[in-house]
Amino acid sequence: MASNEVQVIGGGLAGSEAAWQLAERGHSVVVHEMRPVRGTAAHRTEKLGELVCSNTFKSTETTNAHGLLKAEMRQLGSLILDCADQSRVPGGSALTVDREIFSQHVHDRIHAHPRIRVSREEVTSLPDVGIIATGPLTSDALADAIRARLGVESLAFYDAIAPVVSLESIDQNIAFRASRWGKETMDGAGEEGAYLNCAFTRDEYEAFIDALTTADQFTAHEFDSVPYFEGCMPIEEMARRGRESLRFGPMKPIGLQDPRSNSRPHAVMQLRMEDRGGRMWNLVGFQTRLRIPEQARVFRMIPGLAEAEFLRFGSIHRNSYVNAPAALSSHLSLRDAPQLMFAGQITGVEGYTESSATGLLAGINLARQIDGHEPVVPPPATMMGALYRYMREADPKHFQPMNANFGLLDDLEGVAPKLLKDKAKKRELFAERALTAMAAWRDEAGIIPTAIRG
Ligand SMILES: Cc1cc2nc3c(=O)[nH]c(=O)nc-3n(C[C@H](O)[C@H](O)[C@H](O)COP(=O)(O)OP(=O)(O)OC[C@H]3O[C@@H](n4cnc5c(N)ncnc54)[C@H](O)[C@@H]3O)c2cc1C
């Protein structure tokens, strides 16, 4: 192994993007990819950049959070998006690709780059300098090495994600702010007070349990089967174990008074603030395997959530991810080793586009640091910067992986309230602000987008 080669571990979406960004900035790179020497339970080929499941990078419209993130990535020059463009198949406004053509493109571009070498081997220890982009199915030996270095609590093996809804979509004439036992209100600002409560009557609860226990569930692949343990049990599974189990579990009403009736509700669903700005609210204890349309249908039966806008849907998966707010720096490096960085799904982002975006920035930032510059992160007005802020500032005690969504962005300032009521207009304004901020940030940081085709 040449000693001046930069190490990128994992040749998936994030690792391929990161390697390309480093190589295009003049650095020699070795990508360590364990397939086919050792497979994962989801990958089927030896190709770099294999898409393990769906064939879509989601929307291209900037009024959609995923579309906005892609537009920002294009401002920096993304290999992954270029390969996606070249393998596009009809999918309306979504960037939908032929999976095989896509990974063939990524594979060929990486192999053809004169400064990139691909080494087929499982890495089992951490380098001093490099990028770890081994994804949600990181091999056990490397996972052990990460846990040994970061601390046992810092690497999760499963995600048990509860849905998140936007504050503005919660009917606050119904949902009330309080904490159990009236300890504090939101104004008291303590953790105990940071809840919105949706109270159920007996009839509402019974109807909800009926809907929950009969709703359509995602059937896991074998490799994805999660041993249910406390904190990971799907809400629908808990409900199936007895009609009252939620009322004695996550929906217990004790210590709460509904101000509308001045009495204790039959059951309560609590919402906990997910971000410091209070724009995103997590349905506490509602991790679920219900299919997405079913989540929308059933959870909108919750009093106060009839019009809920879901910023993130729930899921339960095999997923190795680092507790970034507890263990990583703001540019997603080890805190005591700024040139040893994480990228991709292992950082706690969720999704193809998000994983690629963190690979892109990791490649840029490692190149900057090796060249003697400080790492940089886009401002939180951008979707990419807002995701990084989430991974820096989310509560480490409740950290769950996150996808791009508008709830991550700061509110718009100086805009007439009438315009803010128009959701489509509001998103246009978010996008305009984000793309302007990204271009300004890129130019100020002196980042030259990689010339993609060639
Ligand atoms: C089963 C499954 C389905 C998913 N479906 C979707 C979906 O439909 N849409 C979506 O947006 N997101 C999906 N995701 C989430 C996520 O976006 C993808 O997993 C995405 O591929 C993550 O990109 P990545 O680069 O972080 O990891 P990966 O693309 O998984 O790349 C990581 C690479 O590292 C390699 N590796 C692992 N350990 C080592 C080691 N020790 N040494 C060397 N190499 C190693 C792996 O072989 C792999 O090639 C899914 C995840 C899983 C697990």
From TrEMBL:
List the catalytic activities from the record.
uridine(54) in tRNA + (6R)-5,10-methylene-5,6,7,8-tetrahydrofolate + NADH + H(+) = 5-methyluridine(54) in tRNA + (6S)-5,6,7,8-tetrahydrofolate + NAD(+); uridine(54) in tRNA + (6R)-5,10-methylene-5,6,7,8-tetrahydrofolate + NADPH + H(+) = 5-methyluridine(54) in tRNA + (6S)-5,6,7,8-tetrahydrofolate + NADP(+)
One cellular component term (GO) for this entry is: cytosol
Q: What is its main location?
A: cytoplasm
Co-factor requirement: FAD
Domain MnmG N-terminal, first and last residues per copy: 6-373
Q: By its UniProt entry, which Gene3D superfamilies does this protein fall under? A: FAD/NAD(P)-binding domain
Q: Enzyme class, one word? A: transferase
- Could you list this entry's UniProt keywords, alphabetically sorted: Cytoplasm, FAD, Flavoprotein, Methyltransferase, NAD, NADP, Transferase, tRNA processing
According to its UniProt record, the EC number is 2.1.1.74
Q: Please cite one Gene Ontology biological process associated with this protein.
A: tRNA wobble uridine modification
In which residues is FAD bound? G10, G11, G12, L13, A14, G15
Function per UniProt: Catalyzes the folate-dependent formation of 5-methyl-uridine at position 54 (M-5-U54) in all tRNAs. NAD-binding protein involved in the addition of a carboxymethylaminomethyl (cmnm) group at the wobble position (U34) of certain tRNAs, forming tRNA-cmnm(5)s(2)U34.
HAMAP family for the chain: TrmFO
Family designation? Belongs to the MnmG family. TrmFO subfamily.
Q: Please report the name of this protein according to its UniProt entry.
A: Methylenetetrahydrofolate--tRNA-(uracil-5-)-methyltransferase TrmFO
Gene encoding this polypeptide?
A: trmFO
